[in-house]
């Protein structure tokens, strides 16, 4: 198979795929006859071939996919006016804390936010596929440790946590600063999978901007109670957080972590 034919096969598979394709699956297209370096070079050529067009080829945490460019969202939204679920400020702050400080327990989140994290908030984020329990901290009660998922990165249009916006804070960081950084990442990743509707396009960006309205996973009364109970955030010590780069992991904890049983992630 010549280079042009191989590139056409890759392009077709990626356009038709319902989800990002990891390198392992792309190699199966050629029955392992092409080396990974060759396939990667062809993918890079495809990126250049689609430069300046309405769609772009990007690499995400789960693999490669075609998606619409952010500037196309205004027009695609007209085809699918339904809005994605709105999430409360409390839910977004919780998500941002997990993203920047993972792995964390509910207690860690409550220490930063200054209020209780409700079960509805955690469940809403789990149901959306943005967070998951990855183990337990070996302390009293063995609380679950939460981290973000590949789906979270895919929805933000990121390949890794290192691509989250850097935090720029003064003497510390609070939940509002974390939420603002998450919002920045969501708005910067306004693209959508080539085969997805515009409503699905920037789910995280819309959720991050959607503090108003009834949040997903909570009743209106619960949302009101959550807002009224909001207390000033408790900022961790400045030494606990790198101020110049995204925090892709929580601070070192001397307590051992027991990993939860889970299937191997996609390559």
Question: Could you characterize the architecture of this molecule?
Answer:
By secondary structure, the protein is mainly α. 41% of the residues lie in helices and 9% in strands. The protein is built from twelve helices and five strands. The strands form two sheets. It has a three-stranded antiparallel beta sheet. The chain has a two-stranded antiparallel sheet with strand order 1-2. Residues 195-203, 208-259 and 261-267 have low confidence and may be disordered.
CA radius of gyration? 20 Å
Question: What's the pLDDT, averaged over the residues?
Answer: 73
Could you give the count of β-strands?
A: 5
Estimated structural class: mainly alpha
Global geometry: globular
- Assembly state (oligomeric): single chain
- Strand fraction equals 5-15%
Taken in chain order, the helices and strands follow as HHHEEHHHHEEHHHHHE
The largest β sheet comes out as: 3 strands, antiparallel
Distance between the termini: 25 Å
Structure annotation, total helices: 12
């Amino acid at each position: 198979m010549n280079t042009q034919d191989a590139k056409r096969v890759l392009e077709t598979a990626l356009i038709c795929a319902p989800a990002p394709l990891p390198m392992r699956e792309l190699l199966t297209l050629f029955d392992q006859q092409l080396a990974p370096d060759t396939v990667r070079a062809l993918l890079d050529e495809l990126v250049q071939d689609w430069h300046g067009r309405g769609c772009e080829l990007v690499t995400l945490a789960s693999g490669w996919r075609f998606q619409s460019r952010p500037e196309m969202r205004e027009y695609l939204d007209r085809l699918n006016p339904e809005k994605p679920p709105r999430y409360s400020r409390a839910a977004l702050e919780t998500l941002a804390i997990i993203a920047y400080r993972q792995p964390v327990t509910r207690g860690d989140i409550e220490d930063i936010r200054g209020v209780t994290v409700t079960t509805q908030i955690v469940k809403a984020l789990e149901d959306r596929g943005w967070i998951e329990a990855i183990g337990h901290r070996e302390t009293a009660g063995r609380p679950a440790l939460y981290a973000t998922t590949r789906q979270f990165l895919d929805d933000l249009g990121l390949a890794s946590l290192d691509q989250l916006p850097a935090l720029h804070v003064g003497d510390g960081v609070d939940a509002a600063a974390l939420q603002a950084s998450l919002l920045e990442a969501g708005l910067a990743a306004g693209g959508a999978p080539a085969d997805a509707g515009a409503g699905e396009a920037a789910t995280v960006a819309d959720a991050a901007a959607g503090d108003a309205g009834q949040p997903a996973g909570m009743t209106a009364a619960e949302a009101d109670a959550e807002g009224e109970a909001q207390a000033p955030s408790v900022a961790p010590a400045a030494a606990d957080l790198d101020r110049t780069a995204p925090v892709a992991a929580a601070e070192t904890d001397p307590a051992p972590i027991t990993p939860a049983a889970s299937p191997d992630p996609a390559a």
